[in-house]
Structures are given as structure tokens and as C-alpha cells.
Amino acid sequence: MTKIKKIFIETYGCQMNFSDSEIVASVMAGEGYESTPDINEADLILVNTCSIRENAEQRVRRRLQNLRSLKRKRPGIRIGLLGCMAERLKEKLLEEEDTLDVIVGPDAYRDLPRLLKQAETGQKAINTILSSEETYEDIIPVRYDSNGVSGYISIMRGCGNFCSYCVVPFVRGRERSRDVNSILKEATDMYEQGYREVTLLGQNVNSFRWNDEVSGTINFAELLEKVARIDSKLRVRFATSHPKDLSDELLHVIASYRNICKSIHLPVQSGSTAILGKMNRGYSRETYMNRIEAIRRIIPGCAISTDIITGFCDETEEDHLQTLSLMNWAEFDFAFMFKYSERPDTLAADHYKDNVPEQIKERRLNEIIALQHRLSEKSNKKDINSVFEVLIEGYSKRSKEHFAGRNTGNKMVIFPMTNNKPGEYIHVKICSSTSATLIGEAF
């Protein structure tokens, strides 16, 4: 009887990386590998990496040190490094990390089986060639780490924005969109399998474009509408929107469909027009505020989240205060907040000095986090006594006697368990809140 080979995939970074890991799991399933949650029984360990910040790469470095001791105990296992860090460092990783057998960039996952066969001969194997066409649209992802209720669909790959601080265009290649029909098929299949929420993923979903021979050019607003029409019980989310491309057409589509979630992630990065210019973001403070006003006007009550980077090159105290004032004005529901970390080979690294002292970055970041904590707390307190339709995702992390799910605004709701089950919708009245969670009772 042939022994079933086991694969363990550890993923770091963004939702796109988690989606990629599902593609990798599918590729390897075709080679007879079965996913396992137990690293100790794995024959193949793959680490899918992120390069967006130096800290993300350092975490992977530390993890590889841990895996070295595991490989000493079990010399037969193979260890591979995937994703953005593999693409950025390439052959250098083979020289620095003797733990690794294979290194594979984001566009070369189909080549994994061949690379592993090469590694079995004792040779190190690498493929980090970027593609202008690869979208993996014909690969059905293995949703090995899913709750079976909500899942991700990658609708495009790469990025063409070239924000000066960002390494993504260099490690994920040029922007290209997937065939609309393959997206709709994947979403339909997920619904039929019991999924009740899909999130459409792209570095900038707003710039999605697909040229169809019958329908002509289909933009993101039109794609979103097509996915929403699959079934009214299928919730649809998306990430991430770029402010320079957020159209009123898209906002009207969101407003028109009950099952398109009323939450938009709109990264601002800075509240200063001068810093936004250095970041090559393609919009000003005023333009960003115009987009927030459009959201509030066209989709009343829509939740808005954001990304903020503090301490970017030449950022002054006045620039920082402008970020704080924009946060107060926009009243973001939640935010991802970071201090600037220079990434090699980016436009900023080549043209600007990382000249804001570390202690000032730390202080400004702490002020931004403290303000957002207050804004999130204020936002959640407004929801007390409101009734929301919540999609049950599973049990609360803290108690098996409570369900957890999200409302249309992407806020986590915790409530006592009922006779319902994950994947069902339930109305919940909010009784209390924290800065991160709404707490309620079935209504």
C-alpha cells in the first residue's frame, strides 16, 4: 500500500498569500500530497512568505532556524520557501539558508513538482521567473485552512501602481486580471459547496479589467455585480480598493445589492498631500476626502477601514498632525497601522533617505494607534442597540458556548450559541462592545 505523502503549508502576510497557499495545496494534491495541520507528520513543509516589511522577513528567518532542528531529526523531509521573499532574494536564500531544498516565486507554483524531483537528487531547486500572464485561473484551490463558510477568490495578480515604498510590483510582477467566467465559476462552485461569503482579492481590485469577446471590457463594478447575482444568500466582499480608482459607479453597485457587504477598505497611508506625493500614491488629501464623502453619500452607514504608514521619508511633525486630523475627520472604523520600513530596490530606497529617527516613528505610531483605538471604540458604541444580520462563521475563540460571525460592516459579533449552525444567517441585537468586537444576543 502506497504511503500518503503529507504537506504542511505555513503562510505569512496578506490574504493574497493565503489564497496562493490554497493554489499550492491544489497543485501538490495532483502529485498525491494530502494537507495536514500537524507539521510533525509532514513529508513536505512549505513556508509562504511576505516581503512587505523587514519584520515580516525576519519572522521567516527565525522560523527557518526552528525548521533546521526539525530537519536534523527527520533528514527525509523537504522544506521549501514560497512567495514574495523567495522572489526578492532568489539565489541569495540558497546561500544563506541551508535548510531549504526549493525556492519558488509567486508565478512558478505549477513548477513545484519538477523542482521537488530535482531536490530529491540532492540538488537545490529554484524558479523565481515572473510571468506577465499567469493567473492560475484553471486551478481549483484546496481550501485546507477554511471554516467552510467564508473564502477568498483571487481575481487578479501583480500590481502596476509602483507606490514608492512598496516592493509588491517587483515581487509579484505586472498587473493582470483573471477571466471573468473562471471567477464566476469558482464563486458558484463555492456557493454550491456551502460557502456563504466570498472575498474578491487583488492588490487593487478597482483596476480589474477583462476583455470579453461577447461583452467587451468588463470592469470591477460589473464583475462585482455579476458575482452578487449568483445568489442573494452569497455575501460578497472585496479587498483592496485604491483611492485613485474608486469610482461612483462601483459605489452605486455596492448600494444596489443587499448581499454586497457595506464595508470598504480604502488605504490612505498618510494625511499629508506632500507625503502622498513622495509615496507616489496618485491622489491628494483632498481627493481622498472626496472619495470618503462619496462613500458616505452613496452608501450611508458603510464601514470604512484603512492602512496608515507613519515615519515615511521626510515626514515632518506637521505631516503627522495632518494624518491625525484626517483620521479624526474620517472616523475610520478600524485600521492597519505601521511605521515605515525601507525595502531594498523600491523607488523610495533609491531616491529618498529613511531619515525619520526610529524613536520618532515609534512615538507617532503609538499616537496613531491610540487615536484609532478611540475611533474604533466610538464606532462600535454607536452600534449598541442596533440589530444586524450576522453570518455565523463558527465558535468564538474564547468560548465554545458562543458563536462568532461578521455583520455587513465586517465587524466581528459574538453572541450566545443558538440552535443555528455555521453558514446560517441570524439577526443579533448588540448589547455591548469593545474597540474590536460587538457583543450581542440572537434577536
What would you note in describing this structure?
This protein has 443 residues and is of the alpha/beta class. It has 3 domains: 5-127, Rossmann fold (3-Layer(aba) Sandwich), CATH 3.40.50.12160; 150-382, Alpha-Beta Horseshoe (pyruvate-formate lyase- activating enzyme); 387-442, Nucleic acid-binding proteins (OB fold (Dihydrolipoamide Acetyltransferase, E2P), Beta Barrel), CATH 2.40.50. It contains 14 helices and 21 strands. It has a 6-stranded parallel sheet, sandwiched between helices. Helix 8 (220-228) packs parallel to helix 9 (248-256) and helix 12 runs parallel beside helix 14. It starts with a strand and ends with a strand. The mean pLDDT is 95.
Task: Outline the secondary-structure elements.
Elements: E1 5-11, H1 15-29, E2 33-35, E3 44-49, H2 54-73, E4 78-83, H3 84-89, H4 91-96, E5 102-104, H5 112-119, E6 125-127, E7 150-154, E8 156-157, H6 168-172, E9 176-177, H7 180-192, E10 197-201, E11 209-212, E12 216-219, H8 220-228, E13 235-239, H9 248-256, E14 263-265, H10 273-278, H11 285-298, E15 303-310, H12 317-330, E16 334-339, H13 347-351, H14 358-382, E17 387-395, E18 402-406, E19 412-416, E20 425-433, E21 437-442
Parallel strand pairs: 1-2, 1-3, 3-4, 4-5, 5-6, 7-10, 10-13, 14-15, 15-16, 19-21
Antiparallel strand pairs: 8-9, 11-12, 17-18, 17-20, 18-19, 20-21
Helix pairs in contact: 8-9, 12-14
